[in-house]
Amino acid sequence: MPSLVDLSAALAQFDQPWQPRTVAMLNDYDVRVVHTKGEFARHSHPETDEFFLVLSGSLTIRMDDGDVTLGPGQLYVVPRGTPHQPSSTDGAQVLLVEPSATVNTGDNPGELTAERRVV
Amino acid sequence: MPSLVDLSAALAQFDQPWQPRTVAMLNDYDVRVVHTKGEFARHSHPETDEFFLVLSGSLTIRMDDGDVTLGPGQLYVVPRGTPHQPSSTDGAQVLLVEPSATVNTGDNPGELTAERRVV
After folding, report:
1. What interface predicted TM-score (ipTM) does this complex get?
2. CB atoms A1 and B66 under 8 Å
3. To the nearest whole angstrom, how far is the Cα of A75 from the nearest Cα of chain B?
């Protein structure tokens, strides 16, 4: 039987920004937590939507059609194939839900690319 | 472009317990919010896992292997095919993520069965 996940406790286990940790699985999806701080790489995921829920702090998702700024208790789903650049000047803690095969930098791999890691 | 979803605002639009509202879609999954209060029907979902994240209050998920009680910021994924009975004596506000075709009462339809409703 899977275990209960306490999101604050999971986030307290690491502090590197933009390095998600998988805390649970939902069918073939990962539930991930991530610390965001500063600028992430602009990228898209041609194969999937991407779910962001801010738990604390503030996260801006820059897209060609405009910016979306999320605070605690606010979520946004970036549509598949939509270029987006996450930015978090003051930092945030974020819950992600996406297919387990999803790589954080999508179609724009680089030094910010993170391997899948399970807490 | 989809809209930002404020979970508190979405939950303020209705108050009937055990009647989820879909607030966003993630590929072929629904992101839903629900007020829980009292006892729900024991049921299982033979075809899918089910994600519960408590936003406020307290929710107990009774299963044959034991109970899981979730408070704010705690999540649990009920494995597919696992009988479970959600119970929430004092009430809770809960975020659900599950395939859009998932019916709340799973394999045990009855008076608590809710149609898919979008906020």
Report:
1. 0.96
2. yes
3. 5
Q: List the structure tokens of A57.
A: 């702090």
Q: What is the pLDDT of residue A2?
A: 81
CA angle (A14 as vertex; A67, A89 as ends), nearest 5: 25
| Terminal-to-terminal C-alpha distance of chain A | 17
Tell me, what CATH number does B48's domain have? 2.60.120.10
Cα atoms found within 13 Å of the Cα of residue A106, Cβ hemisphere only: 22
Kind and range of the H or E run holding A9: helix A7-11
Chain B CB contacts of A1 below 8 Å: 63, 65-66, 79, 82
Task: Say how many domains are in chain A.
Answer: 1
**Is the CB of A51 inside 8 Å of chain B's CB atoms?**
yes
Phi, psi for residue B27 in degrees, rounded to 5: 55, -125
pLDDT along chain B (119 residues), means of 10: 93 97 98 98 97 98 97 98 98 98 96 94
